[in-house]
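Figure S4 source data
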Amino acid sequence: MVNAFMGASDELNILLRRRIHSTKCEINKSQKIKVEK
C-alpha cells in the first residue's frame, strides 16, 4: 500500500511539474507576443 501510494505521488509530482513548466512557457509566449506588438 505504501509503495503504491509513493509511486502515485511521484507521478502526480511529475505531472504537476510538467503543468507548471507548460504554463510558464505559455506566459513567456504571451509576454513575447505583447513585446513584439
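Figure S5 source data
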Amino acid sequence: MAEEAKLEAQADRVAEVVSLSKGFQALEEVVKKDDAMMKQAHAYNRLSTAVLSLEDALLRGEAKQELEAVKRAAREAGDAFVLKLLEGLPASVVDRLGRIEPVPTESGLRQSLTAQLADWATAALVPPNSGLLGELLGQAFRQVYVLDGEDVRMPEETETAKNLRVLGSVAKMENVAEALPRLEGLSGSCKKRAAAATSAAREVLQLRWRRNRFTALRGNLLSPEEKLANYAARGEDPNKDKEWEDLFGPRSRDLRMGSLHGSFARAPMKRCTFDPVQTPLAVTCELDPQDFAKRCRVADDPASPDDLLKQSLLRYVRCGRYIDRSGIGDEVQDPAAPHEPLEGSYRSLLQTFRGLADATAV
C-alpha cells in the first residue's frame, strides 16, 4: 500500500515537473536571446568607439590603424552597411591615412583651395612656352587681375579666358564638393598645376563623406534611400522603427541606435529623458498628474502611477547608456569587458509599455 501511494504521489507530480521543465526551457531561451542581444550591443559599442578613435586620428594624422580597427569592429558587429562604405575607399585614400599628416576638415579644405586659386590664376596668365619670363609676366598680370566670379561663356574663348572664368566661378563657391567638378574645366598648365590639389581634395571628401555616413547612421540622419539600403544590408524590417515611434515618440530610434541623447514622448508622460552625462544614468520622468489620474485605475494612490512608470523604466534601463536596435544594454565602461546577461529585451520592453498603456486606459 505504501509503495502504491508513493507511486500515485509521484504520478501526481509528473504534470507539475513537466510544466516546471517547460518553464525552465522557456527561461533558458529568453536568457540566450537576451545574451545574444547584449553581445551585439557590445559589438556596436566597440564600433562606435572605433569610429570616434578614427575621427581623432584623422585630426592628428596617421589614421590607418584606426581605419582597420573600424573594419574589424564592423565585421564583429556584422554591419554590412559600414563594411560596404569602407570597402569603397580607393587605395589612394587608404595610403593617405598612413601618412603622418592630419586630414583636413571640409572647412579647412575650402580654405586651402581658396589660398591656391591665386597660384592657379597665375598659371592661367602665363603665355604658353614662355619660360621664366612668362612666369614673371603671369605674376605681374595676376596682381592687377580680379577673379570676379563671372561665369559667362564667350563665343570664341581662348584657353586663358576659359581658365580664368572657371577659377572665378570657383572663387565664389562655398561647397568644395560643388567646386571640384568645375575645376575639371581647367586646361593646359593651369590644369597641371591644380591636379595634385584637386586629387587630394577628392580623397579627403570621400573619406569625410564616409565618416559623416557613420555619424548619420548613429543619429538617424540618413536619407530615405540610404535607410532602405541599411535595412537591406542588416536584414531588418523597416517597419520596426515605426513601431517604436508609435509607442515612444519620434526620438526613440536615436536612443535605440546608440545615440547619446533620446527621449520618450507619449501620454501620459510629458517627457522622459535619459542623461548620459550622469553616472549611473539618470532617468527623469515628468508626468501630467491630471491626465494620468484620468487614465490610471490606481489613481486613488497618488504615489502608484509615478512609481509604476519609473519602476517599469528602471527595470529595463538600469544604469543603461544606450538602446541598440534590438535591445537595451547596461553601460559599458570597457568595450572589451565580459558582458552580463541582459535583463530586458526589445520585445519584453514593448510588452511592458503596452501593458502599462492597457492598465492606464480608461
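The chain has three domains: 13-102, 106-193, 238-360. DSSP finds 15 helices and five strands in the chain.
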